[in-house]
Design brief:
The complex is a heterotrimer of chains A (78), B (241) and C (247). With 78 residues, chain A is mainly alpha-helical. Chain A is built from 2 helices and no strands. In chain A, 68% of the residues lie in helices and 0% in strands. Chain B contains 9 helices and no strands.
Chain lengths: 78, 241, 247
């Protein structure tokens, strides 16, 4: 251990704010980058799943019923 | 613009040599530019205006201007070349001439070399010619002005060559102008450093031959490599369609 | 040989391999980085010149080293994109550029904060700081160009050209900035060139560099997986992966 006490470790002979600011920003940035990457990957997986489900729903609904119906309308000619 | 002001590129037959094709492209670009003189004047006006801003914005004192003058002129020249780059391929892209150029049997990078040289004749060279007047206005001494003109004479073609890559990459994109500056300015830094550094060395009375030779090396490097990169970028941008 | 090459080019194959290696990369990276940092912060001896502020080195040097090597890796991938049109190479460039940007920013930030107690100022136009700043601009340009082009294939190839132009320029930029620096100010402090660094200092430094390297590998895998999923979302293997979790 290079320091006598925990408070000396935090103070770092007056250089504490600089050292801890650096480490703080480093960790915040790295954690944000890592968490953001994982989250966006998972979001893509989720959106793919939703896409497949709606596709499946559509094909299930669409197949038994005809896609469009026509009814004859009589328009009086005169 | 109407069709009369823009002579179409004469489709060169494959029997015509590459040199003749380059000559044709060069002559055509000059002709087009001289039919639209405003496009020629705008970068020059911009150059003068940017230089004017510094005495007004920072300090009109002779000592400051003498010290910073070369830097101011170089930065202003760099910015006005950057401004003019948008025209390098844009009009030809819009009216389809560029696609014809890509389809020519002659190697594309040679044609781009010719186009870039025309671009330099139309923007870089006038800037160099204007520099002595502005140099006097920022109180540079005669020797510094001469060296400054020399560095700009060697440096502005480098700016045009590197810029051609950026112009080719951003062709046909939205907000191409800003993007072009973002891509190109970092690559301009060495030219700027050596351009102003040479003038600073000359002001201290040091010999500048070595610096000028180094800038010449930049020019050779840019002239040989940049047209290849620009040709590749142009093909990509055109296939983007 | 060619079979391996073709396999390497296949996004599906990479996806599976990445999934297998990622836990190890993450665990190893975190372990090494933490070990290096804790050792460096608490146990490494104080520097006789700079006092405790030198402890920033244990994150500054890894970030700066990675920032530069990521650009070199991107340039290698760019060559592969242009020559062999391998899909994975441009997935790599696209996935990794923002990571490089963040690492460059971290190197600059920690350098600036380190400069305050050492040089008495946040920023000096030192050759290294300036060329790192230019590297930051290069990363920014790559990301901006990639975002600006809608078509995936053209974006990949345009970005590859830009990265290669940048990598040709990096030595020129570095050299010119160093020359400019000596022209403008006589030699200042050299940050890392101590006569000799005791083992208690360089071993933790090495550990944290390796740790960050592995974490970068993990990050690249995660981001490449995401990009691959977007590009291949219409294929059958993505569908089975999304619904069953198996590749």
């Amino acid at each position: 251990m290079a320091f006598d006490s925990f408070s000396a470790f935090i103070a770092m002979d007056g250089h504490g704010p600089y050292v801890w600011a650096c480490y703080g920003v480093f960790f915040v940035a790295m954690v944000a980058l890592m968490a953001g990457s994982v989250r966006s990957r998972n979001a893509i997986i989720a959106s793919c799943r939703r896409g497949y489900e709606t596709q499946a729903d559509k094909s299930r609904v669409a197949s038994p019923t005809p896609s469009a119906t026509f009814t004859r309308v009589n328009i009086p000619q005169d | 613009m109407n069709a009369e002001t823009r002579p179409t590129v004469r489709l060169v037959r494959s029997s015509v040599g590459a040199l003749a094709a380059m000559k044709g492209v060069f002559a055509r670009d000059m002709k087009v530019a001289f039919r639209q003189r405003q496009d020629l004047l705008n970068p020059l006006l911009f150059f003068i205006m940017v230089v004017t801003l510094f005495p007004l914005g920072v300090s009109p004192e002779v000592s400051f201007l003498q010290e910073a003058g070369a830097g101011i002129l170089w930065v202003a020249a760099l910015l006005s070349v950057l401004l003019s780059l948008d025209h390098l391929f844009r009009h030809d892209f819009d009216d389809g001439t560029l696609e014809q150029l890509v389809l020519q049997p002659q190697p594309l990078f040679l044609l781009i070399l010719a186009k870039t040289m025309a671009h330099w004749m139309l923007t870089g060279l006038p800037l160099v010619l204007l520099t002595p007047i502005l140099g006097v206005m920022v109180h540079l001494d005669g020797n510094s002005i001469a060296v400054l003109c020399l560095t700009l004479l060697i440096g502005t073609p480098v700016l045009s060559f590197i810029g051609a890559i950026g112009a080719a990459l951003t062709l046909g994109l939205r907000s191409a102008g800003v993007l072009l500056s973002l891509l190109i300015i970092p690559l301009y830094i060495p030219v700027l450093i050596f351009g102003t550094g040479t003038v600073a060395a000359a002001a201290e009375g040091a010999p500048v031959g070595a610096y000028l030779a180094l800038m010449g090396a930049f020019l050779v490097l840019a002239a040989t490599l940049a047209p290849f990169a620009a040709a590749a970028a142009l093909r990509i941008s055109l296939s983007n369609g | 040989m060619w079979r391996i090459f073709h396999k390497l080019g296949s996004p599906k194959w990479f996806f599976g391999i990445a999934a297998r290696f990622m836990p190890w990369l993450l665990a190893g990276g975190l372990l090494l980085l933490m070990a290096g940092i804790i050792w460096g912060l608490a146990f490494a001896p104080e520097d006789y010149l700079q006092g405790n502020s030198y402890r920033i080195i244990f994150i500054h040097v890894p970030s700066a080293f990675m920032a530069q090597s990521v650009y070199i890796m991107m340039a290698c991938a760019a060559v592969v994109t242009l020559v062999w049109r391998m899909k994975l190479a441009d997935v790599f460039v696209k996935a990794v550029a923002p990571v490089g940007l963040v690492l460059t920013f971290l190197a600059l930030f920690t350098g600036a904060v380190w400069g305050k107690p050492t040089w008495g100022t946040w920023w000096i136009w030192d050759a290294r700081l300036t060329s790192m700043l230019i590297l930051l601009f290069l990363y920014g340009g790559v990301i901006a160009l990639d975002r600006a082009i809608n078509d995936e294939k053209s974006a990949a190839r345009a970005v590859a050209v830009l990265v290669l132009v940048g990598v040709v320029n990096i030595p020129i930029i570095k050299y010119s900035v160093e020359w400019w620096n000596t022209l403008h100010q006589p030699a200042t402090f050299k940050l890392t060139e101590k006569p000799s660094m005791p083992a208690e200092m360089w071993v933790p430094l090495l550990l944290s560099v390796l740790g960050l390297y592995l974490i970068f590998g993990w990050l690249a895998c995660v981001r490449m997986q995401a990009e691959i999923l977007v590009r291949e979302r219409r294929t059958r293997w993505v569908k089975t992966f999304v619904t069953t979790g198996k590749v």
